[in-house]
Design goal:
Blueprint (H helix, E strand, L loop, with lengths): L1 E2 L12 H13 L19 E4 L4 H18 L4 E7 L8 E3 L4 E4 L2 E4 L2 H10 L4 E2 L2 H4 L7 H9 L4 E7 L4 H18 L3 E6 L4 E3 L1 H16 L3 H10 L7 H13 L2 E11 H5 L5 E11 L1
Parallel strand pairs: 1-5, 2-9, 3-8, 3-9, 4-7
Antiparallel strand pairs: 2-12, 4-8, 5-6, 10-12, 11-12
Length: 283
């Protein structure tokens, strides 16, 4: 089964050539890293990253920081992408165990062996297409991955509507167990945006508190901060699960590569959305 793109022509261009140009615009943008990435074809040395998932014109330059460092760190065999469920459809924690996802740049094959093992290892996870059919948070990461890695990787989508600490830990631990069982060079991507539709200065203050806990590899502290300050971060569960996974994979620190808001692009600072590019590094 091949999943068709749900937000091509909305969040990013539907035309392949326009999409490539848009991705390159993101890398070269003044809020982006400035240059196109150079991909290392050796095994990936980063266990995980965080990237935003809004329309490329708003969050793409920030996401480009994540993908520049990821490309330079090596090429993974399997990419596990954890994203929030915005639609409310389907299972509360859902993967897909077979098929491929199509984007304007081609199709990305699901790592069926990994995804099937993940459902077996993780009691809260189901194999459910419905949760993925109209969801954008995972889809928007794929063109960036295709741009830097071509067809050299497979992926596992995990869509989460549950954001509690217990669920996040179960998902993160299961990812590591499966990666070790299959001896798969794996990178985990947390797809999230941060504060939604608040003034720029207020959003920035809230988001910095959350990012401080993320880079400290403190999933429980991150969730506590989100709840205490009522931060409208959409990917709390996916980010917490990613922190759990990367710590078990040897990460010793997180690094904020870039933070910006939609206001930094549009010039409207009255109601913004916050975006961050973060990488986790082994000691």
């Amino acid at each position: 089964m091949e999943r068709s793109p749900a937000v091509a022509g909305q969040f990013y261009p539907a035309d392949p050539e326009e999409l490539r140009k848009m991705i390159e615009w993101c890398f070269r943008h003044e809020l982006g890293p400035g240059d196109l990435p150079e991909t290392n074809d050796g095994p990936c040395t980063l266990p995980g990253v965080v990237a935003p998932h809004a329309g490329y014109q708003f969050s793409g330059p920030v996401a480009a920081h994540t993908y520049e460092v990821l490309a330079e760190s090596g090429t993974p065999e399997t990419v596990v992408i954890l994203g929030p469920n915005h639609t409310g459809l389907g299972s509360a924690v859902a993967t897909m165990t077979d098929g491929a996802w199509r984007t304007p740049l081609g199709s990305v094959e699901i790592d069926s062996e990994f995804a099937t093992a993940l459902v077996r290892e993780c009691g809260v996870m189901d194999d459910d297409l419905t949760a993925h059919a109209n969801e954008h948070s995972i889809e928007v990461q794929l063109p960036f991955l295709q741009y830097v890695y071509g067809e050299s990787f497979r992926f596992v989508p995990v869509c989460m509507a549950m954001h509690d600490l217990r669920t996040a830990r179960e998902v993160g631990e299961a990812i590591v167990d499966v990666a070790e069982e299959l001896d798969r060079n794996t990178v985990v991507i947390a797809s999230t945006d941060f504060t939604h539709y608040e003034p720029h200065d207020q959003a920035q203050k809230k988001d910095r508190k959350v990012i401080e806990r993320i880079t400290a590899l403190d999933e429980a502290g991150m969730i506590e901060i989100v709840e205490r300050y009522n931060v409208s971060m959409c990917g709390v569960g996916p980010t917490a699960a990613t922190i759990v996974a990367v710590k078990a994979m040897g990460a010793s620190e997180g690094e904020l590569l870039k933070y910006a808001t939609s206001g930094d692009v549009s010039g409207d600072y009255s109601q913004v959305v916050g975006y961050a590019a973060i990488v986790f590094r082994r000691g």
